[in-house]
Design a protein that fits this description.
The protein is 76% helix and 0% strand. The protein has 127 residues and is mainly α. It has a single domain, classed as Fumarate reductase/succinate dehydrogenase, transmembrane subunit (3 helical TM bundles of succinate and fumarate reductases), CATH 1.20.1300. The radius of gyration is 20 Å and the shape is flat.
């Protein structure tokens, strides 16, 4: 049987042991943006449901989406969409066996953050 009395120590190395690195933080951010996109998608679905429910419900939902808070959620959703896409491409590059050394991996992470920001600004201006 396993020894369950391990004392007051962590079971595995955690964030208190390792310093944050671009590669680990950007990988975590890909997961966070994936979950954040669910929230943005639910807000859009709620808007469509309110549209089908009638003018009063639509007026409330439209007021929420077009408010400063709704605009903030939508612009962050656009950034999350671009970043999640670029992060997925970054992982595909790694899965193919390319750019696996630390310097190139950090460059890919920084590039994904910068490119997502630029693409979000471009999307906001064009759309």
């Amino acid at each position: 049987m396993a020894d369950v009395n391990r004392g007051n120590r962590p079971l595995s190395p955690h964030l208190t042991i390792y310093r944050p690195q671009w590669t680990s933080m950007t990988s975590i951010l890909v997961r966070i943006t994936g979950n954040g996109l669910i929230v943005g998608a639910l807000l859009i679905v709620l808007w469509f449901v309110a549209l089908a429910a009638g003018p009063e419900a639509f007026a409330v939902a439209d007021a929420v989406i077009t408010s400063w808070f709704g605009d903030l959620i939508m612009i962050l959703s656009v950034w999350a969409l671009w970043y999640h896409l670029l992060g997925g491409l970054r992982h595909l590059i790694w899965d193919a066996g390319y750019m696996l050394d630390v310097n190139k991996g950090e460059m890919l992470g920084q590039g994904a953050v910068i490119a997502a920001t630029l693409l979000t600004v471009f999307t906001a201006i064009v759309v």
